[in-house]
Write a structure and sequence with these properties.
single chain; about 650 residues; D-amino Acid Aminotransferase, Chain A, domain 1; OB fold (Dihydrolipoamide Acetyltransferase, E2P); 7-stranded antiparallel sheet; 5-stranded mixed sheet; 22 strands; about 35% helix; about 20% strand
Length: about 650
């Protein structure tokens, strides 16, 4: 008995740590499958022992409020739902009653209050008793009506969600791979609980109503289904729902299961609520669960397979993530052969060894996970060196989670920003190498330094086999690399990522040394100091960079990969000397404004960002525009030129 009480306390602490990590720290200590298994074990122990700790996750619901948003206590506690993975349990729940079955959406539950036909208040579920007031954010939800026909007091509940398409789009816009959101639920939670609704408005948050709490004076014929129809008539988008009874429940569950993969809205199961409102309310509630509703969680399709290897995938933060690679299996209609293990703690818990028979499933029928290890041959060897750079690794304990890190500060996986600068438009201008693609290539070993990007043909087949690539993408990349081989010395110098050296500074420095690479390598700090517009900080950054032999060697390697056209001395080269330009609006004769800026500077002119009394010309194809820059130019008597007029001025 004492052992069981100790196990009960251990499970309570473990599940609370896992829930805090997932909901508040965006970290997974265990898989969803493992959490559910331990939760069920705890529930059974509590029933057997008649003992439930105050901190038990079976009686505590929701996250603790941590933000600076205003707080508000709910009129009545928002309880969680009892759940099952067995259809037979749903039949028992239904009995002779009919019910409404709908998606259990995976987002953030919101309570809305309308008065006199207008949205008055929006409050998150919070910990079930106290939520956060997010009214301003709710007003920018994509599909939420701000005004409705009904003029009485309306209180309803629903789920704020972000769809998978928007989730992928938003993550793709975040350059830092490690800063990307793990799943749509985390993204939605962060978006809804912003202190400024400007961010929320860009995230395409949508609201789906699932429960009507109060609407005085409306006859719903004692039917939850009629309530949903009425909410739709008021302009709300309601969660997809069907009527169901004990005879049809298995068929309905199967229908939802078949449609989940086509559903853009994240869902982690189904919800049943009695259609008879009075009957459901008469049942009351337990300390945690209402008795008129029941949640169904997908009975995960689990397949056995053999673990082939553990891949170690480094990231820009130095974290090295274990990825399980196993014999391919069919899961939920797709072939799966890889699953993230997340961290060393989970690896140790599973006792993963090469050749083990493991069980895999898809969390929420979407994300591959390891459910268990049947043979448990022992922990795979943890690498002592980084698979990318060969630097030493170390094991770290953070938030009760054991993780592996690369200790080498020069590790290529940590230098994604440097590689991204090298291929950027103002540098070598290699299209097709996003940060995500660069990270893949670095982890695969295709790229170790900048010069390797000119020899990706060595890995032609491997690249074409990567997810998201193919023959056409590879050929486009090779064409871009070929174009990048013809460049200028200032662009090459800028692409190195020397601290404080922008493209404009690189042009000035290269010009001062006659665009001679060898002179640049031999440049002294005092010589650079004498160049107008350079200064001590830039001079020191430049000389410190080339003082390192590995940087000099890399620069010489790159010089062998590119062609630097001889700088042509043109008669009109200095014809714009002393003239200051501002460029605004879209361009037609140039690839971008940066290209136009380069032309002006090559002829001795200067380009600034704002119109002042020192500006000589404003270039804007929309000469008649009433923009602030055009207005300022007119006030100061500064000529406004179209591109055509500017180009004509150059040849006159």
């Amino acid at each position: 008995m004492e052992e069981k009480r100790e196990r009960l306390q251990e499970l309570t602490e473990l599940l609370n740590r896992a829930r805090r990590a997932y909901e508040q720290e965006d970290t997974e200590l265990m898989s969803n499958y493992e959490y559910d298994r331990l939760y069920d074990e705890l529930s059974e122990l509590e029933q057997e022992l008649g003992l439930t700790l105050a901190s038990s996750p079976t009686v505590q619901v929701g996250y603790e409020v941590l933000s600076e948003l205003p707080k508000e206590r709910h009129e009545r506690p928002m309880l969680s739902l009892d759940k099952t993975k067995e259809v037979e349990r749903l039949r028992e729940f239904l009995g002779a009653q009919s019910a409404v079955i709908s998606w259990k959406l995976d987002g953030l539950t919101i309570v809305l209050t309308y008065r006199d036909g207008s949205l008055e208040k929006a409050v998150t579920r919070g910990n079930g008793e106290v939520g956060e007031v997010i009214t301003n954010n709710a007003k920018v939800f994509q599909n939420l009506p701000l005004h409705i026909p009904y003029k009485g007091e309306l209180v309803l509940r629903g789920e704020a969600v972000i769809g998978y398409r928007d989730f992928r789009r938003i993550n793709a816009e975040i350059e830092d791979v490690d800063a990307r959101y793990k799943n749509p639920r985390n993204l939605c939670s962060g978006s809804v609980r912003q202190l400024s609704n400007e961010v929320t408005s860009r995230r395409n948050v949508r609201f789906f109503a699932f429960t009507l709490v109060r609407a005085d004076g409306v006859d719903f014929e004692n039917s939850r289904f009629r309530q949903m129809e009425w909410l739709e008539s008021q302009g709300f988008e309601v969660v997809e729902h069907h009527q169901v009874n004990a005879e049809t429940v298995a068929e309905e569950v199967e229908w939802f299961a078949q449609h989940i993969t086509d559903n853009d809205i994240p869902s982690d199961g189904l919800v049943l609520v009695y259609d008879d409102i009075a009957y459901g309310q008469s049942l009351g509630a337990t300390a945690k669960f209402p008795r008129d509703s029941f949640a169904f969680k997908w009975a995960d399709e689990i397949r056995e397979t053999t673990l082939k290897e553990i891949e170690w995938s480094p990231s820009r933060t130095g974290l090295i993530n274990p990825v399980a690679v196993f014999e391919p299996v069919e899961l939920e209609g797709t072939t799966v052969s890889r699953a993230s293990v997340h961290n060393l703690s989970i690896m140790e818990e599973l006792e993963l060894g090469i050749g083990d028979t493991i069980e895999v499933y898809k969390a929420n029928m979407i994300i591959p996970q390891i459910a268990g290890n049947r043979t448990r041959s022992g922990m795979c060897k943890i690498p002592e060196t980084c698979p990318v750079c060969g630097g030493a690794t170390r094991i770290s304990m953070e938030n009760d989670t054991k993780t592996l890190y690369c200790t080498n500060p020069e590790c290529q996986a940590k230098q994604i920003k440097s590689f991204a600068l090298f291929v950027s438009r103002d540098a070598m201008n290699i299209e097709g190498l996003s940060e995500a693609t660069l990270e893949k290539f670095i982890v695969q070993g295709f790229i170790k330094d900048f010069s390797d990007m000119f020899h990706l043909e060595r890995y032609a087949q491997e690249i074409q086999d990567l997810e998201g690539f193919g023959e056409k993408s590879y050929q486009n990349l090779q064409s871009s690399i070929a174009r990048a081989r013809k460049t200028t010395l200032p662009r090459l110098v800028y692409s190195l990522g020397i601290a404080n050296i922008g493209l404009a500074n690189a042009k000035v420095i290269c010009g001062a040394f006659h665009n001679d690479p060898e002179q640049l390598l031999c440049a002294k700090e005092e010589e650079l100091n004498e160049i107008s517009g350079v200064g001590g900080v830039i001079a020191k950054s430049f000389t410190d960079y080339f003082a390192r032999e590995n940087h000099r060697e890399l620069f010489r390697k790159l010089l062998k990969e590119v062609t630097l056209p001889k700088e042509e001395i043109q008669e009109e080269a200095g014809r714009l000397t002393g003239k200051t330009f501002v460029v605004t609006g879209s361009v037609q004769h140039f690839a971008n404004r940066g290209e136009l800026k380069e032309l002006i500077e090559s002829k001795g002119g200067k380009v600034t960002g704002s119109v002042t009394s020192k500006t000589n010309y404003l270039i804007n194809n929309d000469v008649q525009s009433t923009s602030s820059k055009n207005k300022k130019a007119r006030e100061l008597g500064i000529p406004i030129l179209s591109e055509e007029a500017f180009l004509k001025m150059l040849v006159e």
